Amino acid sequence: MYAEYKGKFYRPLHPRPTVVVVSKCPDGKINAMPASWNTPVSEEPPTIAVAVDRSAYTFQCLEHSGEATINVVPADMADLAYALGSVSGRDVDKVSAFGLKLLPSDVVEAPGLDGSIAVYEARVTAKLDIGEVRLYVFEVLKVKVAQGLVDEWGPVLDKTNLLLHGAGRVFYRVDPRKIWAKKPAGRP
Ligand SMILES: Cc1cc2nc3c(=O)[nH]c(=O)nc-3n(C[C@H](O)[C@H](O)[C@H](O)COP(=O)(O)O)c2cc1C
User: Fold this and answer.
1) Would you kindly state where each structural domain of the chain is located, as residue ranges?
2) Which of 24, 62, 97, 173 is the most exposed place for a label (fewest CB within 10 A)?
3) Which residue CA neighbors atom 18 of ligand 1 most closely?
């Protein structure tokens, strides 16, 4: 049995991994905003897309600098991620207000966010305006991971965990138990 869902259409698509987009802004400051509407797009070239509301200061920062770091933050950064998403860099210098520790980048000007599981240094290669959002397509120029926290399966879930955004102040972790799907019959 199915019934039409009258809530926000995207609820069944959550929880979603949260990244923090760090960018250099027109005022010369560094800004940071969480974004859970993000996705890998293509393997070659390595590409990530992030939907950024055009009212966010980050929108202006990305228009200004054309690059960012995309930081995969762990579950224990929930309070910080929520706080970064509750004020605008237009009004608050988030780096000093939240005591953000920044990591120098190798390829882009925007720094990484210390404490992240992974830091993607990335350059905007395409944009698409849809509704209230500009979808930024980023080519990944460099990927760095916190030592020991990422293996061939992704984040090492007995050492760290992903910050999955549910709704509002609600976040989830990933259940660290793996599910091994059965091999289809006749396949090696
Ligand atoms: C966990 C979380 C995820 C969010 N995801 C997005 C997102 O994907 N896209 C977006 O435009 N805003 C998202 N927001 C809202 C922005 O982070 C928020 O508007 C922020 O204050 C913008 O900051 P800025 O004005 O300094 O750029 C999210 C907020 C939270 C707390």
Assistant:
1) 15-147+154-172
2) 97
3) 85
